[in-house]
Amino acid sequence: MNLNHQVEKKLKTSRQRNLILCVIRSTHCHPTADWIFERARKDMPNISLGTIYRNLNLLRDEGKIQELRFGNSVSRYDGDLRSHYHVRCMECGEVVDVPHIVPLVSSQQVEELTGYRIHKHRLEFTGLCPDCLKRLDNIE
Amino acid sequence: MNLNHQVEKKLKTSRQRNLILCVIRSTHCHPTADWIFERARKDMPNISLGTIYRNLNLLRDEGKIQELRFGNSVSRYDGDLRSHYHVRCMECGEVVDVPHIVPLVSSQQVEELTGYRIHKHRLEFTGLCPDCLKRLDNIE
DNA sequence: GTAATTGCAAATAATTTGCTGGGTG
DNA sequence: CACCCAGCAAATTATTTGCAATTAC
After folding, report:
1. Nearest Cα residue in chain A from B140
2. Nearest to B129 among A89, A116, A128 (CB)
3. For the whole model, what pTM was predicted?
4. What is the reported pLDDT for B6?
5. Dihedral through CA A107, CA A111, CA A116, CA A119, nearest 10?
6. Which segments of chain B belong to CATH 1.10.10.10?
7. What is the CATH architecture assignment of B1-81?
8. pLDDT tens digit string along B39-89?
9. Which end of chain B lies in a sparser environment, N or C, as judged by fewer CB atoms within 10 Å?
10. Which fold has domain A82-140?
11. Which of residues 47-66 of B touch A (CB under 8 A)?
């Protein structure tokens, strides 16, 4: 069943898309589109933000990157495709991986309770990173 | 520790804010700001969308409503303050509660693994609601 | 060659904000 | 009567889209 209702379009390669994928894979910082733009620009000064967004969507649809959306504001992207969770600092916005945690979530139970066919789930933690924690303790 | 770094402002009551809270409490549909706007308008034709947003933020800060943010697009609001999870249909966008599920999530474990002080977590399921499931099966 | 892709700029969409006047405590 | 709040419209922010030129296969 094709959930997107979309006819697959044959992708060509492009230097821009390759670069964007490279940039994402070369960092662990869960970058935003804008961060990726600035970084890609260093190698390819004429690249445009529209191209960044278009390719991020293509790469996400292809399953080559993950799009992370936290409550507020902007999308972040992750080149690590393994299923894992994230923590986001409510002060500085930094996002880090939650390592080695086993999903304790039962999609099957949710399917039974709701009648929905569950496709995926997202588990996000929000809190204070060690740095902000220390900084805030000093203020108080 | 005041995480907002904000001086509390003394709230006055307002007919508009009361109405908005009423609207949210009178539905189980996890409405968007726009839906609330249309509904509130029936009782108070001159109310403006800006007022809706300002009051939704105030009510959220007061803890009288929950703001739900799913991956894509718009915020939804929930008058049910009890900790619970949600499922969202990836086809029609409908959001329903996941009833009676016990959180199997250990914030403490995440704190130990990351050094973050965990404040809250959000667990969202995405999938297909029974109606969309049936409709899509007929298409295929 | 033909169809996908680009850069650029303009368009969207959701939400926030500035202002001026009205309502609440 | 101080100051919070409303309505309105304009501003902001992140993202998407239209278009003509370019590039990949």
Report:
1. A1
2. A116
3. 0.82
4. 47
5. 20
6. 1-81
7. Orthogonal Bundle (1.10)
8. 999 999 999 999 999 999 999 999 999 998 776 668 999 999 887 888 988
9. C
10. Dna Ligase; domain 1 (3.30.1490)
11. none
